[in-house]
Design a protein that fits this description.
This protein has about 290 residues and is an alpha+beta fold. The chain has ten helices and eleven strands. The protein starts with a helix and ends with a strand.
Length: about 290
């Protein structure tokens, strides 16, 4: 066993002075194993989400509290949770899942303002933030605050009301948690409608579009799942172990060769370095939500 481990992790004559785990055949075997694990994870996640799934804890009350905390920190009055805007956010989420799109405007050109008007909110100012793939309310708010455009919505003095929809589902091929945040200020005799950044819009929402919006999507106040194993944590853990093993073995390989003054073409390490780079990229991307 000891000899096998030396052969696997240390450069020696039996492995042509290159740790066996760093050979391209070993890297290929690891890649195949990762594909098998990914398939197994997907299968188990689909069949037994209570064992292996996505750990999520997002609540409208917390989203509202965190939003108002950020506004207070910037000297702004709090926004009030409005059920009509929440209905508009819920309708927008339902439309995104039904149309399988990830954008502010639907493929047929329906804008966020259509959902707001169709829900009965006659606005002077309105705005929308979208997020998907986040696990907690604080992660969502922090991501929005780190984006200039979304931060502008969060901290706009034009808004008095806010609505949320927190909806799980499959969007563009990925199982995800979709969060829709809509801001607004009701019209008080003004003649202009403004978009998320306060720019005048010259056209009203057509009545035909208002009627076309479905009213069947339920409002969601919160969503929480607590599987035995979080699939993102499991994937990230495996990636970290692989990163440590290959990086440590590569470093040890270089040190031993230098100490023994064994000359070897450096290009042989390129495949390993590329593999390590892919693993690092995977770790960075795992668990990253997306906002627009």
């Amino acid at each position: 066993m000891r000899d096998f481990l030396h052969h696997l992790f240390l450069p020696r004559e039996s492995n042509n002075h290159r740790a066996r785990i760093l050979h391209h055949t070993s890297l290929l075997a690891v890649i195949v194993l990762l594909f098998v694990l990914e398939f197994s994870f997907s299968f188990l996640h689909e069949k037994r989400g209570d064992i292996l799934g996505l750990r999520t804890d997002i609540a409208v009350t917390e989203l509202l509290s965190l939003t108002n905390k950020k506004r207070e920190e910037n000297g702004l009055p709090p926004v009030q949770l409005d059920p009509v805007l929440s209905e508009a956010a819920s309708q927008k989420a339902a439309d995104m899942f039904a149309g399988n799109y990830w954008a502010h405007n639907s493929p047929n050109g329906t804008t966020p303002w259509v959902f707001i008007k169709s829900s009965g909110y006659d606005y002077l100012y309105a705005g929308e933030n979208l997020a998907r793939g986040f696990s907690t309310s604080s992660d969502v708010i922090n991501a929005w605050m780190q984006s200039p455009g979304h931060r502008e919505n969060m901290l706009s003095p034009n808004y008095k009301d806010i609505g949320f929809a927190v909806v799980p589902g499959t969007l563009t091929g990925d199982e995800t948690m979709l969060v829709v945040e809509m801001f607004g200020k009701r019209r008080e005799g003004a003649s202009d409608i403004a978009d998320a950044r306060g720019n005048d819009l010259t056209q009203q929402v057509p009545q035909a579009e208002q009627v076309a919006i479905s009213k069947q999507s339920p409002l969601v106040a919160s969503f929480q799942t607590q599987p035995l194993v979080d699939v993102k944590d499991a994937t990230k853990g495996i990636s970290l172990v692989l990163l440590f093993v290959f990086f440590f073995t590569l470093l040890l390989d270089i040190m031993i060769l230098k100490n023994k003054k064994i000359v070897r073409i450096v290009a042989h390490n390129i495949d390993t370095i590329m593999f390590i780079s892919v693993v690092i990229t995977t770790i960075i991307l795992i668990g990253k939500g997306v906002i627009i």
